[in-house]
């Protein structure tokens, strides 16, 4: 499994175009308002013209009209069909020492624009231009088909990541590539599928209890509480 994982990750790393240097920093955010993909790419090695690279949509992000966002597309198929898997990677300003900078979460807004349910994860790699020595994966954020914009918080502290290769501490100290991908299980790569994903406001943050994404039961309780409060207010007004 480790050999297969290393080969898949190395192929993507070797196909990257040269990228301008920019240091990882706490609080940095990708908003895509400049109209570029900000170095988010796909593995173009051997894919020919059939893969769909990441693109920027000028309007329709979480803030509505005029809010640009990144769009990722996968074409489905079987096996290693070119562009068949939903994934994008960044080896520029999302590479660095997350532990030293105190970055313990990555937040972003996500929208499932396709007809397939998605399980979005982040993958951290320590490769340094060769075979990866450490790889770690986050828990999944589940996005039903046709979902609206969802604010996702990926915990990336040492206790929240799962090591697929090497150690979590190693990859957080020397991340060279960050990936966003669809992965129903704790494995890379994910399965091929036909899909589209909107991504916006990718933020390097500090995780706290206040910025965790509520679980579905919590959301249901909040909705029930708000409904009860509205009913109580109506009764007071009627009285």
Question: Strands, helices and their partners?
Answer:
Layout (H helix, E strand, L loop, with lengths): L1 H13 L14 E2 L24 E3 L11 E7 L11 E4 L7 H4 L3 E8 L5 E9 L7 E4 L3 E3 L6 E6 L6 E4 L2 H6 L3 E6 L11 E12 L10 H23 L1
Antiparallel strand pairs: 1-12, 2-3, 3-12, 4-11, 5-9, 5-12, 6-7, 6-8, 6-11, 7-10
What would the keywords be for this entry?
239 residues; six-stranded antiparallel beta sheet; 4 helices; globular; disordered C terminus
Tell me what the structure shows.
- With 239 residues, the protein is α+β, with helices and mostly antiparallel strands.
- The protein has a single domain (2-212), classed as Jelly Rolls, CATH 2.60.120.
- The chain contains 4 helices and 12 strands; from the N terminus they run αββββαββββββαββα.
- It has helices at residues 2-14, 98-101, 168-173, 216-238; strands spanning 29-30, 55-57, 69-75, 87-90, 105-112, 118-126, 134-137, 141-143, 150-155, 162-165, 177-182, 194-205.
- The strands form 2 sheets. Strands 1, 2, 3, 5, 9 and 12 form a 6-stranded antiparallel beta sheet that branches. Strands 4, 6, 7, 8, 10 and 11 form a 6-stranded antiparallel beta sheet that branches.
- Strand 6 and strand 7 (134-137) form a beta hairpin.
- Residues 212-231 and 234-238 have low confidence and may be disordered.
